[in-house]
Amino acid sequence: MTTGWGMVDDTGRDDADASGETEDDLPYYTPPFGREEVPGFLDRLVAHLLAGETREAFTFEGVEVEESQGVWLLPLGGYDPDADESLQPNPPADLVVPEGGFAAYAEEWTEGVRRTLREAWGAPMVRKPSLVGENQDPEGILDVVLVSVGIPEAEMWDRGDLYCVLVTNWDAEPRQSMLRQAMVVLPREYAVGSLSALLPEEDMHNDLLMNGEHPLELRRRAWLLSTLFGAGEVRLRDVDVPASRFSLQSRSGVTTVWTFTDDGRILVLIQDPTSTFADEAPAQFLAEVAQQHGGDAPDAADAADPSEREADLAEAWLILAARMLDRVPDDLRALIAARGEDARGAVAEHDLEFRMLGDEPVPVITGAVWFDGEHWCVSPSLMEIGRRNDFGMDDFGFGAAVRQPYRLGGALTVDEMSREGDERRTWFEQVFAACPYPEQDRPSDTERLGYAVPTSGDHHDLLADIERVTRAWWERSPEDADWADRTFEIGGRGLRDDHGRALRVVLASGEVWTVDALQAWADDLIGVMSERWGAAGEIHARNEKTGIDRRSPLTRVMRATGLLTAPLWWVNGHAVAVVAGTPDPSYGDDPEVIIVIARPDAVLDLARGSNPWELRIRARIISDISALVGGAPAPGPLRWNGPPLAGSSLVPDAMRGGFRTGDHFWTWHFTHDGRGLFLSHPTGPDAAARPEPTFEEQVALFGGVPDDLLSLVVDRDPGGFFPVVHRGASTPGSAETENLLAGAATLPAVHAVFWRDDVDWRASDGMLQRVRDALDPDDVDTTNPLETIYPEAFGVPQLQWALRMGERMGPPTLLDAPYVSFVFDRVPEREEIEQVYAALGMFPDLALTGTLNDLLDVVVDAPGYRFLLDAALSNPHPERRRELALWLLDQRLDASSALSFLSPVNVLFANPTLGAEDEPVLRRLLEQGAIPGPTPVAMLPEWHPFVQLLDRDIEETALAPLVRTLLVHGDVDPATPALPDGRSLLDFASGPFPHGRSRDALASAIRELVAGGAVDTAAEPER
Q1: SS (H, E, C) 424-447
Q2: Residue 863's pLDDT band (boundaries 50, 70, 90)?
Q3: How many CA atoms lie within 13 A of 829 on its CB side?
Q4: Which segments of 268-413 does DSSP mark as H helices, in order?
Q5: What percent of the chain has pLDDT over 70?
């Protein structure tokens, strides 16, 4: 076996010496000395490395050592089962195997090494991989090693300037997989710091940080704003480097302190108490420190002493502030706290607060940058804090403290600062005229935008990123990418996933004064896209003719920004849109360029803006007429495995129906939670000529549809709505799987499947796969896939026309001759249409006597009409009442108001069929604010819900769950006077009652409640 992480093929035999084999050929590895010698060996190695070893690979006392990025790696033990001949069915007869086997021998060695190091060096620090940021990247170089090799934890010892980190790990099952033990030796700053410790000088350079503004222009602006709103130029005294300080402080405490040295260097300190850094970084630092010491950092709510927590946060802030200054040149740092004098020679106060950290004063800041005479620099520690917390420069306050007040990238003139007629105009003109620093030439547009646009490449590189994303998204999503995978980035900026329907990224942004440069950048990008992908189409977030919003994942991004028009291309089956411009003020003030990549079914709305409840009513009416005038099956309820109503186990039936649209038949399903399912199959003479789809094709077609919606069609009686295909004997299903498709015996034989989640209508994965299958595998494909998803051959335009999606629809439509011939088997009579409408009923009556589906078939927009709740609570049918009431309460109804002297609780308790099974309804009423006592206008004692309930001629056991919920969840104290005659509810529970039934058990349980016990619940009712 070789050293390092590699293994060789040879095995150990007792004739090794004669054959030239050595111990290195065994299936395990140990160094050429005993385990007791390991600590001394490592101490000598550390001394050797500190003496200046520079080779990338060398042998030290017989052990191979490799170096990379300033980290040394050497093996201390290992085992390879693939090289272990003793595990073969017929091992060599001359193979000598240690007692217990080679794996046990190797394990004993590695455990001995761990024990020996603990005895020699003490207990180690246990280090687990630290992953930071939204992408969960390894924090430091040691974390990279642990994550790359898959090591769950390591043991770390401080050996002075170097740390020794022991990693020991079985790949899988102990003694049956590969065992690795190695020592990682690395500098202290690498072991306890992040990857920023590896940062070379040039990687600290951020030359576009100041948006291309010349250092002299920055000094001019610092002088102007400091003179206008602060103390003006302050010369620093008793310093080695002559310098001036300029400060600006806003009413909110945002402070900027510029220090300009006479030799051309600049230091900028930022303090923004409203920044994300101030809100989050100190607390995150405390949490990380606590985690390193094996505990949890208490948050403000958990801290035993809030003042102690505040002190800890303040100290953490200082520590982070000191770290952000750690690479600032010493002579610049010395200027931070230097004494200053204003133009009158008076001592100038510093606008920053200083606190002591140990024996050193540290400014309370949220950020720091400096100009070294050639480059703008950001310290590695600031970058580390940003990476750990997903902070950009503006999260440190750079935007609020520097870019915006000093208008970086834009002109700073009198006209920009003051309008004509402003009473301060004369003062501003005088200050601008007195400025000793001349205005500099404006930077180029690229410089003006700075890091607001990607700088890692040009527009062609951005297009290559987009093409990579559009190809990869067919295979996997951003959530599947590991920390080192940059597949789902455009210009180095990660895409956000909108529920698998759209990916978006703010690719570029600017300020109001750089909008011209940003628009020019966006126009250039759009031009390059058109050269590469052809002329752009255009997507509108609102129908310009009807004014109806188009509802899709893509248009939601557009509506949110107020940018309602965008160019669009099709790239590898996905839509690529550039949403660019100055957004609506409700979204933000800054102009942006947003790239949205959308699934082909996430661009246009199948329903063309019609809400699902309106579609449900229309589908029900058309289906009822089709059943009346022709041979179509009548719509009806259908049980399914859907989600129960909140607070219960009740799952309302779905509704199913269907109707013809020319040469296609569409079956629809609608559910109580606003979702649905559309299926189409061909009809007429041409349908028989088409080959029947295979079962496997239908399994693929229904892919991606949630299991609860699949339960509407898998192994269901088609009821005349659709043909079915059966699983063949050669492809048996799995009866044990929880996946409905995998275990299905029959499926609808259809060729279009659309389903609605809680927001959008979507194509099934099988339909999207048709788009992917049609793509050119060898080149960028820019064909429009909408014809593949919404073709006339599948009846999609016909469905939209029949349901008048996005348009008005009423009885006249149903009598229109072209419509009648397209949908119905014969012309319906006006009286027949009126009969269908009348049969639907009026929704107040339906809540009072009908079913939930009856109500949902007529209620548009699922409104939370308050009066419907009282009607539903009065419904005499128990199951209907519970379904209706629970569904209405899910619509965020405010149950606290009463429509009469009866509260909703009174209405429920007055229902003749009230029972224990109504407990979930009562609980939800109370959760939605229903009054547990009498309403303000209820003067009689019998209208107290508690009195009303106990006066009911109902068995005591049936009342117990309702009494318990009323008192406990209504937060009612039964021992305090509550009735007009001064009695408490506990007094009332003692009787007598008009019905003559005993309430002794309830009274006893209530007394236990008063004494601190619980109401007797017997059996919990089914919900």
Answers
A1: CHHHHHHHHHHCCCCCCCCCCHHH
A2: low
A3: 4
A4: 276-292, 306-324, 330-333, 380-389, 398
A5: 91
Long-range contacts, 830-833 (Cβ 8 Å, 24+)? 832/625, 832/628, 832/629, 833/625
Q: What is the pLDDT of residue 737?
A: 56
**Is 599 in contact with 475 (CB distance < 8 Å)?**
no
β pairing state of 255-261 and 676-682: unpaired
Cβ count within 10 A of residue 973: 13
Task: Find out whether 256 and 268 touch, Cβ atoms under 8 Å.
Answer: yes
Question: Do residues 833 and 645 make contact, with C-beta atoms less than 8 angstroms apart?
Answer: no
Residue located via tokens 């949110």: 560
For 363-400, write each residue's pLDDT tens digit: 999 999 999 999 999 998 898 888 778 899 999 999 99
Residue-averaged pLDDT of the chain: 88
CB-based contacts of 691, cutoff 8 Å, min separation 6: none
Other beta carbons within 10 angstroms of residue 279's beta carbon come to 12
Distances (CA, A) of 839 to 16, 623, 636, 857: 95, 13, 14, 11
DSSP state of 401: I
pLDDT tens digit sequence for 593-627: 999 999 999 999 999 988 899 999 999 999 999 99
The yes-or-no verdict on residue 574 having pLDDT over 70 is yes
Question: Sign of the CA dihedral 816, 822, 823, 826?
Answer: positive
Could you give the 3-state DSSP secondary structure of residue 714? coil
Q: Which amino acid is at 462?
A: L
- The closest alpha carbon to 510, from 408, 387, 440, 377, belongs to 408
- Here the tokens at position 406 are 């000093």
Residue length, the chain? 1023
β partners of residue 187: 162
**Is the torsion defined by CA of 735, 737, 743, 748 positive or negative?**
positive
pLDDT tens digits for range 141-154: 677 777 766 778 88
992 preceded by a cis bond (ω within 30 of 0): yes
Per-residue confidence (pLDDT) for residue 735, from 0 to 100: 54
> Cα–Cα distance between 194 and 188 in angstroms, integer?
11
Cα 985 to its chain centre, rounded Å, is 49
Helix axes 515-533, 459-472, angle to 10 degrees: 60
**CB-neighbour burial class of residue 889 (10 A; exposed 0-12, middle 13-18, buried 19+):** buried
User: Taking Cα atoms as reference points, which of 560, 554, 566 lies closest to residue 597?
Assistant: 554
Residue 230 to residue 122: CA distance in whole angstroms: 57
Residue 897 — φ and ψ, nearest 5°? Answer: -85, 150
Count the Cβ atoms, other than its own, within 10 Å of residue 418: 18
Cα–Cα distance, 128 to 145 (Å, whole number): 11
- Specify the DSSP element, H or E, that contains 47: helix 38-50
For the cut 70, the answer to whether the pLDDT of residue 11 exceeds it is: no
Sorting pLDDT into bands at 50, 70 and 90, what band is 199?
low
Rounded CA separation 345/341 (Å): 5
pTM confidence score? 0.79
Inform me whether the pLDDT recorded for 336 exceeds 70.
Answer: yes
Q: CA–CA separation, 165 vs 443, rounded Å?
A: 50
Contact between 409 and 444 (Cβ < 8 Å): no
CA distance 721 to 632: 8
Residue 373: φ, ψ to 5°: 105, -25
The pair of three-digit structure tokens given for residue 449, joined into one six-digit string = 């935008």
Distance CA 478, CA 496 (A): 8
Cβ neighbours of residue 1019 under 8 Å, at least 6 residues apart?
none
- Residues 691-750 have pLDDT tens digits of 889 999 999 999 999 999 999 999 999 999 999 999 986 666 555 556 899 999 999 999
DSSP string covering 742-759: HH-SEEE--SEEEEE-SS
- For 433, residues 6+ apart whose C-beta sits below 8 A from its C-beta are none
pLDDT tens for residues 158-171? 998 899 999 999 98
Give me the amino acid identity at 919. Answer: E
